[in-house]
Write a structure and sequence with these properties.
Blueprint (H helix, E strand, L loop, with lengths): L4 H6 L9 E7 L3 E2 L8 E3 L3 E8 L9 E9 L2 E6 L5 H12 L5 E8 L5 E17 L11 E7 L2 E6 L1
Antiparallel strand pairs: 1-2, 1-7, 3-6, 4-5, 6-9, 7-8, 8-9, 8-10
Length: 158
């Protein structure tokens, strides 16, 4: 069975959230080959911030004026990685307060690994790094959680 782009509009095959990849594009173009496997991506969200303006003499309603676009942090989760370029970037940011922003591309794939849609996060930089708890009573992989702030997000429809 062949899937065409119009199939998504009629709801024949909705995309599944477990087929995705992440690419860190240093200097705008070069993908980081070691940091692309994550078990979870969240925070792909944008909101229009508004300002409320009351009209003189009008008590039935007020005007909400759009001001800017606000973004949540991009959150990436994976098994703890001891040494990688991304870990080194987080170490520089968290220990020395040195930042090297880069672009991050999150791609959603179909069942044949073809890109369906993507989001480009421009000038992303680390703002939080967290490791899951250690528990001697459980046999679980240690998870690292990374949060990135960014300048803006560009949806890229394929």
């Amino acid at each position: 069975m062949s899937i065409t782009p119009t199939d998504f509009f009629v709801g024949a095959v909705p995309p599944l959230g477990f087929r995705f990849s992440v690419a860190f594009l240093h200097f705008g173009l070069i993908p980081n080959p070691l940091d692309f496997m994550f078990q979870k991506v969240s925070g792909i969200c944008s909101t229009v911030a508004t300002r409320t303006v009351n009209e003189g003499g009008q008590n039935l309603y007020s005007h909400r004026i759009p001001e800017r676009i606000e973004y949540e942090n991009l959150v990436l989760e994976r098994g703890l990685t001891v040494l990688s370029p991304l870990v080194l970037e987080f170490d520089l940011a968290m220990m020395l307060f040195k930042f090297n922003p880069c672009n991050v591309l999150v791609i959603l794939h179909d069942n044949k690994a073809h890109p369906i849609t993507a989001w480009l996060f421009r000038n992303a930089y680390p703002v939080k790094w967290e490791v899951s708890e250690f528990n001697a009573n459980e046999n679980e992989v240690v998870i690292e959680r990374m949060e990135l702030a960014y300048q803006n997000m560009l949806p890229m429809r394929v």
